[in-house]
Amino acid sequence: MRLLYLTPGFGLGGLERKIATYLKIFLNAKYDVAVCLNSNSGYMQELVPLGTEIFALKGNNYFTNMLQFREVLNDYMPNVIVSQHTGLYNIGLLLIAKIARKKMRVIIGIDNTVSEKWKWSNRDTVYRRISKWIGRRLVIPYFYPRADRLVVVSNGIRDDLVSNYGITSDKIDVIYNPIDVESIVAAAKLPLEESWLYEEVRPIILGVGRLVKEKGFDNLIRAVGNILRQREVLLIIIGRGDQQERLQNLIVSLNLGKSVILLGAKDNPFPYYKRASVFALSSEYEGFGLVLVEALALNCQVVSTDCRSGPAEILEEGKWGRLVPVNDIEALAEGIISAIDQPIMQGRLASRAEDFSLERAGNQFINLVERLYVTI
Predict the structure, then answer these.
(1) Least confident segment among 170-174, 175-179, 250-254, 318-322
(2) What are residue 210's phi and psi, to 5 degrees?
(3) pLDDT tens by residue, 205-226
């Protein structure tokens, strides 16, 4: 069995960690595995498991990349392709696969609630309006059903595709993102880079994710500002993105420099989860919310916005962590205070993370690939 992943790149995000996990799963299942990237620059080579063949598209634009991708297919001859790419690349993939008429099956992975993502993409621009119209009327309803299967990471994404884009539910498989609990626990035992954090007596609130607008870190910072009127806390945010300067300016304007710290990206964020009193997710939308499962794996109290899609499914409507309304700064602050003062499921949160184990998700994906393979 030869399997090929198509992905934009291999950075530090949750999607990349998920792909790396699946690559390990398929390699352990004795598949020949390869990954095809948009570029050979900027990817975290250490995340790509040993034994994975790497192809890098080096074209100057979409069309030259697609020509190179056709050559990759001719050279590698995969039985199954799993695309974690975006709309235009998936159209190109489906067209190339159809024209080539080779014995291959195509799976498209969707990790975000599509209708929500377009609300946040290039807001109020002509490009956004055009891309939204093309996506809603052409890319997703017409091309995506021509893939052999669509794999989504939450029931909310499935419901969004069915209700907003007319895709039939029998075309869609829901497979939650897997985590390697054992590896996370081991990584969390490594020392913090900032040794002074071991001496910190204030409760630590942790946020992890790309510093982009839809992650709502500005709301989290403002919520901490509200909390500081009642007690001392320390907010640590791990990640990088185009909102970093804006968030730093907000911290300065609110005079929170001693209570909010942007640490940047971390290759190993897990010691910070272990040190934190509360993990807070403040997103406007998610596809799944892998960081929530990572926090649960380390028995860290969780507060999350009840955004589409994923958090309510992971936390089972509040059983394993507190859910607060999106964009409600006061409710977010109150949820964090409650998590500090009245922790729930103390010491037992990791049992929920086991529901997203490598074995469970891996078996689901392997079974799907095997079902497709026998139809070739």
Answers:
(1) 175-179
(2) -65, 140
(3) 999 999 999 999 999 999 999 9
d(CA 3, CA 134): 30
Q: pLDDT digits over 184-204, tens only?
A: 999 999 999 999 999 999 999
**Nearest CA-CA partner of 318 in 307, 329, 326, 306:** 306
41 phi-psi bin (left φ>0, alpha ψ -120 to 50, beta other): beta
Cα–Cα distance for residue pair 184/302, rounded to 1 Å: 17
53-56 β-sheet, strand order = 53-56, 32-37, 2-7, 80-83, 105-110, 149-152, 172-174
Helices (H), 205-328: 217-227, 244-253, 270-275, 290-297, 311-314
pLDDT, tens digit (0-9, with 9 covering 90-100), for 102-127: 688 999 999 988 888 766 554 556 65
CB 66 within 8 A of CB 92: yes
**Cross-strand bridge partners of residue 308:** 285
**Residues whose CB is less than 8 angstroms from the CB of residue 8 and which lie 6 or more positions away in sequence, other chains included:** 37, 38, 84, 85, 86, 89
Copy the structure tokens of residue 84: 């974690």
What's the CA gap between 230 and 248, in Å, rounded?
Answer: 23
Kindly report the pTM of this predicted structure.
0.86
Tens of pLDDT, residues 237-269? 999 999 999 999 999 999 999 999 999 999 899
Q: Please name the residue ranges forming H helices in the chain.
A: 14-28, 62-76, 87-100, 114-120, 126-134, 155-165, 181-188, 217-227, 244-253, 270-275, 290-297, 311-314, 329-341, 350-353, 358-373
Residue 249: the pLDDT is: 98
Query: Please, what is the average pLDDT of the chain?
Result: 90
Domains, the chain: 2-178+357-373 (3.40.50.2000), 181-355 (3.40.50.2000)
For the beta carbon of residue 170, count every other beta carbon within 10 angstroms. 6
